[in-house]
Every structure is written in structure tokens, then in C-alpha cells.
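Please annotate this fold before class:
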Amino acid sequence: MVLTTGGSAVWPSSLVREPRPDAGPEARSDAGSDAGSDAPPGNRGYREHMSETITRDAFVPEAGGVTMFTTSWCGYCARLKNQMTKAGVPFREVDIENTPGTAELVAEVNGGNQTVPTLVFPDGSTATNPSLAEVQSRV
């Protein structure tokens, strides 16, 4: 199920990704006790594993460019990529469905929703479905 709001594709936060089978026992929801964790019961291992692996800092681009979180099916992403390419704005594309931990990172900056396109700017700030003019003014 995909929703659209305000011109952005939204993957509902109610759909929870399960840990990768190769992530090890600490990432499984049945691993260990949840005592002392602020994560919801059953999610401690996975959430702790992911938070140690991926941070927004890993995706902050160099001056003059942006990092763009996308999906392969997002029309809004394709449009913005095309506009930035034509305008000469350098960008790094990260598909949140194929890069572990990035869907959760996108959800963190979008109120729990995995909304794309989400961009990270050189100052570390983010924007969701920005216009080309906004992108150009922030790089």
C-alpha cells in the first residue's frame, strides 16, 4: 500500500520491515530480553542493530551536492532526479528499499513515514519532496 500526500510517495509506518535473515540473532525480535531498553518489546535487537549501523551523518554530501533517498517506483523521485540532472546539481541516489537501515532513517526525519524523495543537504538538514528551486538555494 502506497499513499500520496502533498506530492510525495509515502510508505505507511504501520508496515514494519522484518530484520534481514543474515543479520544475526541480535537482530531477531525474539532475541534476548527487552529489559532496560526504550525500544518496544520484541524490537530491541533490530532497532539497536540498525541505529549502530546507519546515521544521517553517513549521508551528508559535500558542498554543492545532495543525497537523495528514493525508491525505484517513485514518480516524484524520477521527476526531481531529471530536474537536478538538467540543472547540473550533483546528487547521490540511495534506494531505501535496497540499502539496509535507510528506510528507518528516512522515517526518522519524516514523522515516522518513509516518504520519498527525501534529500540531505551539505549542512546536514533535510527536505522532503523539495522543488528544484529549493534544492538549488540550499546546496
Remarks:
- The chain is about 25% helix and 20% strand.
- The beta strands are 3-5, 8-11, 66-70, 91-95, 114-116, 118-120, 126-128.
- The longest strand covers residues 66-70.
